[in-house]
């Protein structure tokens, strides 16, 4: 079932003297509960498209909708956005950080306490509600950021390089945690990443974009037997290397086209 639909999206950035075309003729659809990755050369418009899907601004041309509802300006569509930096408020406790969105939505305090406890347990950080961000490691802070993102029960989660600032061991652990948590809560997610291995290990499908102006160049299906594994386990599956080489060659050909 089509959950999110991007139709005929073009986007151009205008300045006083120039017009820069970032995206051209993007058509794609994502099913409910899918985990999708956007990959491609730097500057191909991945983050621009993610921002349009987030409803931060409308495309120059085209539409983006979730379950038939337009996203831009629609207060009934809740979007979760997780970034490279955790952006926790240092002067607020972990509980206050997690319930920030709920407070903005005027949800009652008791519900906020229950949601905080449930989500901290889900991300493996029980009983830290009264701690402050400075007391946590980088990986723990990103877990809190995930809990904060899930607290408002978003319709879809958008992940923009959320693991890139972490050391490799923490990154692998957090990949597993995010994948497990999103499956547990039945969430649909889109990941923007430069890490091809991460995209393969975490995704159901991978959308490869061509250089600017970004176009959808090719879609890769991750084999079903890999999708049932954790990201860490998926990296050891025989199909992982085959798919990595296939997508790598496509990326190389795009980079070659870009420079010739």
From TrEMBL:
Residues 4-236 form the ABC transporter domain. It holds the Pfam family ABC_tran. The keyword Secreted does not apply. It comes from the Bacteria. InterPro entries: AAA+_ATPase, ABC_transporter-like_ATP-bd, ABC_transporter-like_CS, ABC_transporter_ATP-bind, P-loop_NTPase. This is Spermidine/putrescine ABC transporter ATP-binding protein. Keywords: ATP-binding, Nucleotide-binding, Transport. One of its GO terms (molecular function) is ATP hydrolysis activity.
